[in-house]
Amino acid sequence: MSARTEVDARANRIGDVDAVVVGAGFAGLYAVHKLRSLGLTVQGVEAADGVGGTWFWNRYPGARCDVESVDYSYSFSRELEQEWDWSEKYATQPEILAYIDHVADRFDLRDRFLFGTRVTSAELDEDTLRWEVRTDRGDVLSARYCIFATGALSTANMPNIPGRESFTGDTHHTGHWPHEGVDFTGRRVGIIGTGSSGIQSIPVIAEQADHLYVFQRSANYSVPAGNEMWDDEMRRAIKAGYDERRRLSRESGGGSPYNAHPKSALEVSEEERRDAYETRWKLGGVLFAKTFPDQTKTEAANATAREFAENKIRRLVDDPAVADKLIPNDHPIGTKRIVTDTHYFETYNRPNVTLVDLKAAPIESITPSGITTADADYGLDTLVFATGFDAMTGALDRMRIVGRDGVSLAEYWSEGPKTYLGVGVPGFPNLFVVTGPGSPSVLANMVLGAEQHVDWIADCIEHLWEKDYDAVEASVPATEQWVEHCRELAAQTLFPLANSWYMGANIPGKPRVFMPYIGGFGAYGRICADVAEEGFRGFEFS
Ligand code: N01
């Protein structure tokens, strides 16, 4: 029986709890564990039929994490660290989901969740300062605290291409991949999108499909993962080194135990620069963006990294005309998330793969039998949308979250998300966002980020109890200052130049604002700790 069927059979949950946690991904599971350990009554609610969050949904072929498995794992339990064996450097989606399933069972978290159940609204009762939370299954919960662990990349973006619904073949979005998998054998497959999801799945689909057409609007930078299988000796070394790895990660810019070369890219000799890039390239993946500290800060430094990456792409792709199209020319390298790939560029050397350049000839429509661009018709049996997400705010905006004076979160954020520390929002007392906009979030290791946020939220709730307060709320001045601080930090970088999902640029009509905090994971952690130490400076208590 699926969780959804069980939900249909269950009675609606109606009643009072201390906290509602929305989402059963890494963040939500840890929030339930942590708050329960403080003695709170907690109700988790999860739209999916199981735990895992992004790793529950994104089952497309080739899906892996671009943070090393050993780092992209919980640090709150030494026993868990020691008992779990990662099999490779960059874990696949099934292995990460198995890990999350293990955590849910080991810490007995599953029965705290309503699965197959979507929160539709959360409304503040201004008299009692409690939240009334409603779900699509008819549950009505009253909670003192609402913790939104709804993920930064959880709301799939389906572009409104004319004729989309008319296609008579199979259609899939990478973010909602069927559990039973998709067989591409003998099929003419089209894939729209060359972000991380597209670039990870393209080589695997190409191996199966009769022909794969890649519909690329913008080329993307990608660095090979350099993946490795771990043997027992390596696993022993990893387990012995966890403490130091975590310490370095917490102090780092991105939540992994790596720091940039100590000098500017322009300060070093050409040879030293090339060696540094080569070392990072071999290390694999997204960390290439942080080889030098100024790499995403000045165009001149960035140009050196671009040149290095371009040469690599040219060496990997046989046809120079195809290589030209695969080299990005519209954004500084690293200002869109660099993809971590496995044999991506080489895939274009296969005879059964065609790169369709949508900059040269845009899609005009999707037809019953395929895709029509400005200069050709492509007959397709299967269409894959690797078109990304309404990032960081999408999941929150889609719920009706109503705070003081009847103002909804979507209204309050209509010109871009405004938070204090990415965790609190003025007018929304006792509502906490985990790894929300205004925190390092997607720019850092999301698992350590979630732990840091949840621990901080738990400390804040304990502070409320100690002082005998009912509610905590981000103040307007502290929020305005924080939003401005985040904006200033972003303006000192090249990130605002890219039409990225960090900027909301991938969603028509979304305000163009750089959403995460870019001051670094370590710096952010220190700010949060200072705020807490100073009696939660910038928050108001009632
Ligand atoms: O989504 P994306 P994603 N017509 O937004 C194209 C994380 N992640 O799912 O760039 C044609 O990056 C769009 O084109 P353009 C990771 O943080 C991590 O791939 O807008 N094309 C783009 O090419 C990542 O950054 C992992 O011109 C259209 C693509 O679709 C984030 O999730 C794996 C279009 C969307 O790329 C998002 O990645 C997967 C249209 N109408 C994801 N609309 C790992 O851990 C959109 N596109 C490795």
TrEMBL record:
Coiled coil: none annotated. GO terms for molecular function: oxidoreductase activity, acting on paired donors, with incorporation or reduction of molecular oxygen, NAD(P)H as one donor, and incorporation of one atom of oxygen. Its cofactor is FAD. InterPro entries: FAD-binding_Monooxygenases (IPR050775), FAD/NAD-bd_sf (IPR036188), FAD/NAD-binding_dom (IPR023753). It comes from the Bacteria. Residues 18-237 form the FAD/NAD(P)-binding domain. Residues 246-270 are annotated as: Disordered. Keywords: FAD, Flavoprotein, Monooxygenase, NADP, Oxidoreductase. SUPFAM superfamilies: FAD/NAD(P)-binding domain. Belongs to the FAD-binding monooxygenase family. This is Cyclohexanone monooxygenase.
